[in-house]
Amino acid sequence: MSPAPPIRRRRLPLSLRRRPVPWERQQPTWRDAKPAVIAQALKRAQARPSGNWFVVGASRALRDDRPLARTVAGQEVVVWRGPDGRPLAGPGVCPHLGAPLADSPVHCGSLVCHWHGLALNGTPFAGWEPLPVHDDGILLWVRLDVAGAEPPLDAPVVPRRPDPARSVASVYVGTGVCEPEDVVANRLDPWHGAWFHPYSFVDLTVVDAPASPEDADDGFTVDVSFRVAGRLVVPVRAVFTAPEPRTVVMHITEGEGRGSVVETHATPLGPDERGRPRTAVVEAVVAASDRPGFSVARGAAPLLRPLMRTAASRLWRDDLAYAERRWRLRSAGRFPG
After folding, report:
1. What is the pTM of this model?
2. Residue 117 φ/ψ region, left for φ over 0, alpha for ψ in the -120 to 50 degree band, beta for the rest
Protein backbone atom coordinates (compact mmCIF):
# COMPACT_ATOMS: atom_id res chain seq x y z
CA MET A 1 0.00 0.00 0.00
CA SER A 2 1.40 3.44 -0.93
CA PRO A 3 2.22 5.83 1.95
CA ALA A 4 -0.63 8.08 2.98
CA PRO A 5 -0.14 11.87 2.91
CA PRO A 6 0.91 13.32 6.27
CA ILE A 7 -1.54 14.78 8.75
CA ARG A 8 -1.21 18.57 8.57
CA ARG A 9 -0.34 20.29 11.85
CA ARG A 10 -2.89 23.06 12.55
CA ARG A 11 -2.45 26.33 14.41
CA LEU A 12 -5.20 25.27 16.81
CA PRO A 13 -5.56 21.70 18.11
CA LEU A 14 -9.24 21.46 17.18
CA SER A 15 -10.74 21.07 13.71
CA LEU A 16 -14.28 21.51 12.45
CA ARG A 17 -15.83 18.68 10.44
CA ARG A 18 -17.23 20.59 7.47
CA ARG A 19 -19.07 17.71 5.84
CA PRO A 20 -19.74 15.20 8.61
CA VAL A 21 -20.87 11.78 7.43
CA PRO A 22 -23.71 10.23 9.47
CA TRP A 23 -22.89 6.96 11.20
CA GLU A 24 -25.11 4.88 8.92
CA ARG A 25 -23.61 6.40 5.75
CA GLN A 26 -19.94 5.95 6.56
CA GLN A 27 -17.93 3.52 4.45
CA PRO A 28 -18.36 -0.11 5.61
CA THR A 29 -15.08 -1.60 6.83
CA TRP A 30 -15.93 -5.31 6.99
CA ARG A 31 -14.27 -6.12 3.67
CA ASP A 32 -10.99 -4.59 4.85
CA ALA A 33 -11.13 -6.17 8.31
CA LYS A 34 -10.04 -9.56 7.00
CA PRO A 35 -10.29 -12.19 9.75
CA ALA A 36 -7.14 -13.95 8.50
CA VAL A 37 -5.06 -10.74 8.70
CA ILE A 38 -6.22 -10.05 12.27
CA ALA A 39 -5.66 -13.68 13.28
CA GLN A 40 -2.15 -13.72 11.82
CA ALA A 41 -1.23 -10.46 13.57
CA LEU A 42 -2.45 -12.02 16.81
CA LYS A 43 -0.40 -15.13 16.14
CA ARG A 44 2.76 -13.07 15.57
CA ALA A 45 2.14 -11.18 18.81
CA GLN A 46 1.73 -14.43 20.73
CA ALA A 47 5.07 -15.68 19.37
CA ARG A 48 7.01 -12.71 20.75
CA PRO A 49 8.78 -13.07 24.10
CA SER A 50 7.27 -11.60 27.25
CA GLY A 51 9.92 -12.97 29.59
CA ASN A 52 7.03 -14.13 31.84
CA TRP A 53 6.22 -10.57 32.95
CA PHE A 54 2.62 -9.63 33.76
CA VAL A 55 1.18 -6.18 34.51
CA VAL A 56 -0.51 -6.10 37.92
CA GLY A 57 -1.63 -2.48 38.16
CA ALA A 58 -0.71 1.18 38.32
CA SER A 59 2.35 2.40 40.17
CA ARG A 60 0.22 5.13 41.76
CA ALA A 61 -2.12 2.49 43.18
CA LEU A 62 0.65 1.11 45.39
CA ARG A 63 0.39 2.77 48.79
CA ASP A 64 3.01 2.79 51.54
CA ASP A 65 0.75 1.14 54.13
CA ARG A 66 -1.07 -1.55 52.10
CA PRO A 67 -0.08 -4.07 49.43
CA LEU A 68 -1.45 -4.15 45.92
CA ALA A 69 -2.98 -7.57 45.43
CA ARG A 70 -4.03 -9.42 42.29
CA THR A 71 -4.56 -12.98 41.17
CA VAL A 72 -2.43 -13.63 38.08
CA ALA A 73 -2.94 -16.87 36.15
CA GLY A 74 -4.60 -18.35 39.25
CA GLN A 75 -1.76 -17.36 41.60
CA GLU A 76 -2.29 -14.87 44.43
CA VAL A 77 0.31 -12.11 44.21
CA VAL A 78 1.06 -9.17 46.49
CA VAL A 79 3.25 -6.15 45.79
CA TRP A 80 4.31 -3.65 48.43
CA ARG A 81 6.96 -1.00 48.99
CA GLY A 82 10.05 -1.78 51.04
CA PRO A 83 11.70 0.65 53.46
CA ASP A 84 13.54 2.36 50.58
CA GLY A 85 10.36 2.79 48.54
CA ARG A 86 11.24 0.15 45.97
CA PRO A 87 8.55 -2.47 45.21
CA LEU A 88 8.72 -5.98 46.61
CA ALA A 89 6.53 -8.88 45.52
CA GLY A 90 5.70 -12.46 46.34
CA PRO A 91 2.90 -15.02 46.68
CA GLY A 92 -0.20 -13.72 48.45
CA VAL A 93 -0.46 -16.74 50.78
CA CYS A 94 1.15 -16.53 54.21
CA PRO A 95 3.59 -19.44 54.65
CA HIS A 96 2.44 -19.98 58.25
CA LEU A 97 -1.26 -20.92 57.95
CA GLY A 98 -2.27 -19.57 54.56
CA ALA A 99 -3.69 -16.18 55.52
CA PRO A 100 -4.48 -13.81 52.62
CA LEU A 101 -1.62 -11.35 52.62
CA ALA A 102 -3.76 -9.04 50.51
CA ASP A 103 -5.53 -8.04 53.73
CA SER A 104 -2.33 -7.43 55.71
CA PRO A 105 -0.73 -4.04 56.44
CA VAL A 106 2.77 -2.83 55.62
CA HIS A 107 4.84 -1.60 58.54
CA CYS A 108 8.35 -0.15 58.12
CA GLY A 109 8.67 -1.81 54.73
CA SER A 110 7.59 -5.30 55.91
CA LEU A 111 4.31 -7.00 55.06
CA VAL A 112 2.85 -8.09 58.42
CA CYS A 113 0.36 -10.98 58.35
CA HIS A 114 -2.82 -9.90 60.13
CA TRP A 115 -3.50 -13.42 61.43
CA HIS A 116 -0.42 -14.01 63.57
CA GLY A 117 1.99 -11.16 62.88
CA LEU A 118 4.52 -12.95 60.67
CA ALA A 119 6.53 -10.20 58.95
CA LEU A 120 7.88 -10.65 55.42
CA ASN A 121 10.61 -8.30 54.27
CA GLY A 122 10.86 -9.54 50.69
CA THR A 123 13.48 -12.23 51.28
CA PRO A 124 12.82 -16.01 51.26
CA PHE A 125 11.21 -17.34 54.43
CA ALA A 126 9.74 -20.75 55.34
CA GLY A 127 9.13 -21.73 51.75
CA TRP A 128 7.79 -18.32 50.77
CA GLU A 129 9.83 -17.07 47.80
CA PRO A 130 9.83 -13.48 46.52
CA LEU A 131 8.92 -12.73 42.93
CA PRO A 132 10.81 -10.45 40.53
CA VAL A 133 9.01 -7.12 40.32
CA HIS A 134 9.47 -4.05 38.11
CA ASP A 135 8.11 -0.51 38.48
CA ASP A 136 8.42 1.34 35.17
CA GLY A 137 7.11 4.57 36.66
CA ILE A 138 3.53 4.06 35.43
CA LEU A 139 2.84 0.33 35.75
CA LEU A 140 3.89 -2.47 38.08
CA TRP A 141 4.94 -5.84 36.66
CA VAL A 142 5.66 -9.19 38.30
CA ARG A 143 7.46 -12.15 36.74
CA LEU A 144 5.80 -15.54 37.07
CA ASP A 145 8.01 -18.10 35.38
CA VAL A 146 5.69 -21.06 35.99
CA ALA A 147 2.68 -19.22 34.53
CA GLY A 148 4.61 -17.75 31.60
CA ALA A 149 6.58 -20.91 30.79
CA GLU A 150 9.03 -18.91 28.66
CA PRO A 151 12.73 -18.18 29.08
CA PRO A 152 12.73 -15.37 31.66
CA LEU A 153 13.85 -11.82 30.89
CA ASP A 154 15.50 -9.54 33.43
CA ALA A 155 12.93 -6.81 32.72
CA PRO A 156 9.57 -6.57 30.96
CA VAL A 157 9.11 -5.33 27.41
CA VAL A 158 8.11 -1.73 28.17
CA PRO A 159 7.00 0.31 25.13
CA ARG A 160 8.64 3.60 24.22
CA ARG A 161 6.92 6.48 26.03
CA PRO A 162 7.05 10.29 26.14
CA ASP A 163 9.31 12.00 28.65
CA PRO A 164 7.55 11.75 32.05
CA ALA A 165 8.45 15.38 32.77
CA ARG A 166 6.51 16.46 29.67
CA SER A 167 3.48 14.17 29.80
CA VAL A 168 0.42 13.20 31.82
CA ALA A 169 -0.33 9.55 32.51
CA SER A 170 -3.46 7.80 33.74
CA VAL A 171 -4.27 4.12 34.17
CA TYR A 172 -7.60 2.36 33.70
CA VAL A 173 -8.21 -1.15 35.07
CA GLY A 174 -11.17 -3.32 34.05
CA THR A 175 -12.05 -7.01 34.12
CA GLY A 176 -13.80 -9.21 31.57
CA VAL A 177 -14.81 -12.84 31.09
CA CYS A 178 -12.39 -13.70 28.31
CA GLU A 179 -8.76 -14.58 27.68
CA PRO A 180 -5.89 -12.17 26.95
CA GLU A 181 -5.94 -13.08 23.26
CA ASP A 182 -9.49 -11.74 22.98
CA VAL A 183 -8.36 -8.36 24.31
CA VAL A 184 -5.34 -8.29 22.01
CA ALA A 185 -7.45 -9.30 19.00
CA ASN A 186 -9.82 -6.41 19.76
CA ARG A 187 -6.94 -3.96 19.59
CA LEU A 188 -5.56 -5.54 16.40
CA ASP A 189 -8.86 -4.75 14.69
CA PRO A 190 -8.72 -0.96 14.19
CA TRP A 191 -11.49 -1.11 11.57
CA HIS A 192 -14.21 -1.29 14.23
CA GLY A 193 -13.40 2.10 15.79
CA ALA A 194 -15.79 4.53 14.12
CA TRP A 195 -18.57 1.95 13.82
CA PHE A 196 -18.44 0.63 17.38
CA HIS A 197 -17.34 3.84 19.17
CA PRO A 198 -18.99 6.71 17.27
CA TYR A 199 -19.10 8.81 20.45
CA SER A 200 -15.26 8.92 20.43
CA PHE A 201 -14.01 8.27 16.87
CA VAL A 202 -15.08 9.59 13.46
CA ASP A 203 -13.63 9.65 9.95
CA LEU A 204 -11.50 6.57 10.59
CA THR A 205 -9.43 5.14 7.76
CA VAL A 206 -6.88 2.35 8.03
CA VAL A 207 -4.19 3.69 5.70
CA ASP A 208 -1.69 0.86 6.13
CA ALA A 209 -2.05 -2.72 7.37
CA PRO A 210 -0.48 -6.12 6.73
CA ALA A 211 -1.21 -6.86 3.09
CA SER A 212 -1.84 -10.55 3.72
CA PRO A 213 -1.72 -13.12 6.52
CA GLU A 214 1.90 -13.83 5.50
CA ASP A 215 3.02 -10.20 5.94
CA ALA A 216 5.66 -10.05 8.69
CA ASP A 217 4.92 -6.41 9.53
CA ASP A 218 1.86 -6.27 11.77
CA GLY A 219 1.68 -2.51 12.29
CA PHE A 220 -1.71 -0.93 11.59
CA THR A 221 -1.66 2.78 10.65
CA VAL A 222 -4.89 4.67 11.18
CA ASP A 223 -6.07 8.19 10.36
CA VAL A 224 -8.84 9.09 12.78
CA SER A 225 -10.44 12.06 14.47
CA PHE A 226 -11.18 12.08 18.17
CA ARG A 227 -14.59 13.61 18.79
CA VAL A 228 -14.54 16.50 21.27
CA ALA A 229 -18.01 18.02 21.01
CA GLY A 230 -20.45 18.23 18.13
CA ARG A 231 -18.45 18.80 14.95
CA LEU A 232 -15.23 19.68 16.81
CA VAL A 233 -12.60 16.97 16.44
CA VAL A 234 -8.86 16.34 16.81
CA PRO A 235 -7.42 14.52 13.75
CA VAL A 236 -4.37 12.30 14.27
CA ARG A 237 -2.44 9.45 12.73
CA ALA A 238 -1.84 6.46 15.01
CA VAL A 239 0.11 3.23 14.65
CA PHE A 240 -0.90 0.04 16.49
CA THR A 241 1.74 -2.60 17.23
CA ALA A 242 1.99 -5.63 19.53
CA PRO A 243 5.46 -5.78 21.16
CA GLU A 244 4.67 -8.88 23.23
CA PRO A 245 1.84 -11.44 23.61
CA ARG A 246 -0.33 -9.50 26.04
CA THR A 247 0.28 -5.90 24.96
CA VAL A 248 -0.92 -3.68 22.13
CA VAL A 249 0.44 -0.13 21.87
CA MET A 250 -0.99 2.83 19.99
CA HIS A 251 1.56 5.54 19.16
CA ILE A 252 0.27 8.88 17.86
CA THR A 253 2.77 9.67 15.15
CA GLU A 254 1.25 12.75 13.49
CA GLY A 255 -1.20 15.45 14.41
CA GLU A 256 -2.11 16.80 17.81
CA GLY A 257 -0.49 14.98 20.71
CA ARG A 258 2.29 13.50 18.58
CA GLY A 259 4.32 11.13 20.74
CA SER A 260 1.40 10.21 22.99
CA VAL A 261 0.92 6.54 23.75
CA VAL A 262 -1.93 4.24 24.73
CA GLU A 263 -0.75 0.89 26.11
CA THR A 264 -3.28 -1.92 26.49
CA HIS A 265 -2.10 -4.80 28.67
CA ALA A 266 -4.09 -8.00 29.18
CA THR A 267 -3.38 -10.00 32.34
CA PRO A 268 -4.95 -13.44 32.88
CA LEU A 269 -6.50 -13.65 36.33
CA GLY A 270 -7.86 -17.19 36.57
CA PRO A 271 -11.29 -18.80 36.37
CA ASP A 272 -14.41 -17.37 37.98
CA GLU A 273 -16.86 -19.41 40.07
CA ARG A 274 -18.29 -20.91 36.87
CA GLY A 275 -14.89 -21.90 35.52
CA ARG A 276 -14.80 -19.14 32.90
CA PRO A 277 -11.50 -17.31 32.28
CA ARG A 278 -11.14 -13.78 33.58
CA THR A 279 -8.75 -11.17 32.22
CA ALA A 280 -7.76 -7.77 33.55
CA VAL A 281 -7.31 -4.93 31.10
CA VAL A 282 -4.73 -2.45 32.37
CA GLU A 283 -4.56 0.50 30.00
CA ALA A 284 -2.02 3.29 30.41
CA VAL A 285 -2.68 6.54 28.53
CA VAL A 286 0.40 8.77 28.36
CA ALA A 287 -0.55 12.11 26.81
CA ALA A 288 2.04 14.55 25.53
CA SER A 289 2.11 17.71 23.44
CA ASP A 290 4.72 20.24 22.39
CA ARG A 291 2.21 23.10 22.51
CA PRO A 292 3.07 25.79 25.09
CA GLY A 293 -0.30 25.44 26.80
CA PHE A 294 0.28 21.80 27.65
CA SER A 295 2.36 22.82 30.66
CA VAL A 296 -0.85 24.22 32.13
CA ALA A 297 -2.56 20.88 31.51
CA ARG A 298 0.31 19.09 33.24
CA GLY A 299 -0.19 21.34 36.24
CA ALA A 300 -3.80 20.20 36.36
CA ALA A 301 -2.86 16.49 36.10
CA PRO A 302 -4.72 15.49 39.30
CA LEU A 303 -7.91 16.79 37.69
CA LEU A 304 -7.11 15.40 34.23
CA ARG A 305 -6.41 11.82 35.30
CA PRO A 306 -10.00 11.02 36.41
CA LEU A 307 -11.31 12.44 33.12
CA MET A 308 -8.84 10.31 31.16
CA ARG A 309 -9.88 7.21 33.12
CA THR A 310 -13.55 7.98 32.50
CA ALA A 311 -12.96 8.19 28.75
CA ALA A 312 -11.06 4.88 28.79
CA SER A 313 -13.79 3.28 30.90
CA ARG A 314 -16.46 4.20 28.37
CA LEU A 315 -14.48 2.70 25.51
CA TRP A 316 -13.73 -0.47 27.45
CA ARG A 317 -17.35 -0.95 28.41
CA ASP A 318 -17.88 -1.67 24.71
CA ASP A 319 -14.55 -3.33 23.95
CA LEU A 320 -14.81 -5.77 26.85
CA ALA A 321 -18.23 -6.76 25.53
CA TYR A 322 -16.51 -7.33 22.15
CA ALA A 323 -13.76 -9.44 23.77
CA GLU A 324 -16.21 -11.39 25.92
CA ARG A 325 -18.40 -12.26 22.94
CA ARG A 326 -15.34 -13.33 20.97
CA TRP A 327 -14.40 -15.70 23.80
CA ARG A 328 -17.95 -17.10 24.08
CA LEU A 329 -18.01 -17.88 20.37
CA ARG A 330 -14.51 -19.39 20.45
CA SER A 331 -15.30 -21.56 23.46
CA ALA A 332 -18.41 -22.87 21.69
CA GLY A 333 -16.55 -23.53 18.45
CA ARG A 334 -18.68 -20.93 16.65
CA PHE A 335 -16.22 -18.08 16.08
CA PRO A 336 -16.26 -17.35 12.35
CA GLY A 337 -12.74 -15.84 12.30
Report:
1. 0.92
2. left
